[in-house]
Structure formats: C-alpha cells, structure tokens
Amino acid sequence: MTGSWFTERMCRHQALLLTALLTTTNFLVVFDGLVVTVALPAVQHSLGLGQAGTQWIMAAYTLPLGGMLLLGGRCSDRYGRRPALITGFALFIAGLLLAGLAPALWLLLPGRMLQGAGAALAVPTSFAIISAQRSPRDRNRLFAAVAVAGGLGAAGGAVIGGVVTQGLGWRYVFLLSVPVALLAALVAPKVLKRRPPPSTTGGLDLPGVVLSTAGLMLLVLAITNTETAGAASFSTLGPLALSAVAFTGFLLHERRTKDPLLRLGTLRVPSFRTAVLAMPTNEFAYQGSVFIGLLFFQQALGYSPLGAGLAFSPLGLVVLAGSSVANRLLHRFRWTAVAAAAQFVSAVGLALLALAGPGSAYLPHILPSMLILGLGTVVGAVSFNVAAGKDISAQDKGVGYGVFETAKYVAGVFAVAGLGSIAAARTSSASVEAASRTAALAAGYHLAFAIAAGIAVAGGILVAVLGDSPGPRRGRPGRAPTVI
After folding, report:
1. Spatial CA neighbour of 352 closest among 456, 266, 252, 432
2. CA–CA separation, 151 and 286 (whole Å)
3. Residue partners of 202: CB distance under 8 A and separation at least 6
C-alpha cells in the first residue's frame, strides 16, 4: 500500500517536471521572438545602428530557426531526445549570454544565431517527446500545456519587453532569460531517461542538410523582404527563386539516397499530411489576431500600448481554459472534426473584428471576438499538434515535427508580412475616400481580418476534405512505445 502510494506520487512528480520542462521550452522560444522586437529601438540607439542593423538582429534569429527545424528534428531521431534537448538549451543559453553582453553588432548577431539554432533543435525534440507518451490523455494534456505556454509567451513578450527595457535596459531582455533556460537544462537529465535513440543507422545526410537549410533560410528571407522591399523586388524574387532551386535539389536527392534526412514516405501518412497542410491556416488566424489586432487597437481604436495589451488579456485567459476543452473534445471525437470546427470558430472571431469600427466599444464588440478567437486557435493548435505525430514511426517523430514546425513557422512569417502589406495597401487606397486617417487605417485592418477569416475557413474545409487514416476508436486507443 505504502509502496503503491509512493510510486504514484513519484510518477506525478515526474509528470509535473516533464510538463514544466516542455512548456518552458516553447515559452522561451515564443517569448524571445517578441520581447526582442520591443527592445529593438533601445538596441539601435545604444549600439548606434541603422535600420539595416536592426533588421539583421531579427533575421539572425529567424533565419536559423526557420532553416534548421528539419535538421533539429532529425538530430533528435539520430542521437536521442535527451541529448538533443539539452544541446538545444546549451546553444540557446550561450546565445543569450553573447547577445546580452555584446559590446557591438559583430557579437550580438552570432548570439542571436546561436539562439535560433538552439530553438530549432529544442522545439521539434520537445514535440517528439510529447508524441511518444503512452497515454493519449497524457499526450493531449501536454500538447495543450505547450499551446498555453506559447500563448503566454506571445502575450507576455510585448509587455515584459517594454517593462524590462525601460526599467533595466535592453541587455536584460536577454540576460533575465538565462536562469530560466539554465534551470530547464538542469531539470532535463532528471526527467528524461537515458534511452537509445529511435534511429541508430546512418548519418545526417549532409547534402540533404545543406539543401534543406539553404532552401528554408532563403524562403524565410524572401518572405521577410516583402515587407520592406515589396513582393516584386529583386531582393524578394531572387531568394525565392534560389529557394525553389534548393528545394528541388533536396527532393531529388532525398529520393535517391539510402539514408535520407526526410523519408518522403512520411509525407504520405494521411494524418501527418493533413496536419502539415492545414496547420498554417490556424497560424494565420492566430497571427491575424495578435499582430494585426494589436496594431488595430492602437491605431484605429486609439488604445494605448498598455491598453491594447490589456484588451488582449481575455484571449490569453481563454487559451488557458481552451486547452482543457481541446483535451476533452479530442478524447470524444476524431481530431479532424475538432480541428475543422476550431477553424470555423476562429473565422467567426476574426469576422467580428472585421466588423468593429473606430467607434466600437470594447464590451459589446471586441471582447466576444477575443473569447471566440482564443478558443478556436488553441483547440486548433492542440488538435494539429496531436495529429502530426500520432501515426508516424518512432524513428521519424523528430524530423516529422521538424517539418510540421517549419510549415507553422513559415506560415507565421508569411502571415505577418502578408497581412501587414495587405492592411497597408488598403489603408493607402482608402485614404482618398475616408473621412479621416483613422477610418482609412480601420479599412486596412478590416480587410486583413477578413482575409485571415477566409483562410481559416479554407483550413477547416481542407481538414474535412483530406481527412485522416482510419486508426483506432477514441474509446479504445492503441498503445505506442515510449521513446524519450
């Protein structure tokens, strides 16, 4: 009796530590991407940088992160989840220290690159760890917790970044994350048991690594350049063409090599394929609400930066509650039905924002959209995260989530650049007819919200059309081997 009680308490303790470890991983990656954005003006002034220098501070993080997610996932398959996650934390911590202590741009940029590389190694590894859990309930619970952590990182990044930059200085934006990441790195060996890697044959397929990394980095660079140079500029079309060449070479190489970086058969697994193709639409809904919404609240509705952050706080609260809702829904219904419904719910929230005008009050018009959006995006995120790894083999879970996170990340970059450009173009054309600058801005953001809503609907339809493999019934889930 005593032994059983002790064993149960130890299992609960391990489960809590694992949840804390994996949620911290996702929180830090999302948080870092936003908190630095707030600190950029202070960095620019302190180091005497021009506009190009500040753009490279962001690119030095986003390019390795977007370009190396596939490689990071394969490393976790090849060398094991535990060493891959710890190495990711080590790189991330080293990058934080270099960036926080950098006297000039020449040291700040390598620090940002190390952060991006560490995040690219840690993120797909953490998702592969979750997907390998035996119990479907535990998997859903962990995916929900990680989704909440990402939402909190996004919500807290802007507010905390402003407070820290103004009170302590921009360097502490990096340095205050060091003890959190260090604690997570020290906890990892206690929680993750030393196990043989899922895949023990072959190497890392270096040609595939070079081609995929180059293709993804060039794609992210091209999408990012659309905001500053325009979609038809050489700085956009040039990287885009080179990216297409690299991806073509990658696919041809992967078909011929004996030990590929990505087994192309993985892309034919129905649940994985549907999740990878439809998840970007959920990311559009999320980015449409956060990025465009914050600008809309401040520029069209006249909110202060703090007021805009507080206006978004109900969305974060719903994300916390919605994760539990997602867990229960996935236990009762097929994930395709849950994900499709979530996309339609997100579309309703975005449509409500598209109907809000400069004179709209918060309570009758804005608050319902925040609540609906929070519910739709978190249920959708959890559903897609669960689906991406449920049917792929243990030796491909890491690289599978590398592909999944790459699609999600590229969609997020494209959403920010695309929706921002759409809003700006519509504002410019509406300024001729609108009675005021505020009305023109509102027209631009309304169009961006409407397009994001349409993409969310398209995602729901896509899930319903592509479907899923038959799989076991929800009430009698199959057991999968645990590989950590």
Report:
1. 456
2. 10
3. 78, 258, 259
pLDDT tens figures, 404-425: 888 888 888 888 778 888 888 8
Question: How many Cβ atoms are within 10 Å of 68's Cβ, its own excluded?
Answer: 25
pLDDT tens for each residue of 108-136: 999 999 999 999 999 999 988 888 877 77
- The C-alpha angle with vertex 468 and arms to 466 and 469, in degrees rounded to 5, equals 135
Whether residue 193 contacts residue 82, with contact meaning beta carbons closer than 8 Å, is answered with yes
> What is residue 370's three-state secondary structure?
helix
Amino acid type, 83 = P
* Beta strand extents in 70-150 (DSSP E only): none
pLDDT at position 1: 46
Residue 136's nearest CA partner among 481, 482, 478, 484 is: 478
Q: How many CB atoms lie within 10 A of CB 468?
A: 21
Q: Which H/E stretch holds residue 287?
A: helix 270-287
CB-based contacts of 214: which residues, under 8 Å, 6+ apart? 67, 242, 243, 246
Cβ-in-10-Å burial (0-12, 13-18, 19+) of 5 comes to exposed
The HSE-up count of residue 92 (CA atoms within 13 Å, CB side) is 33
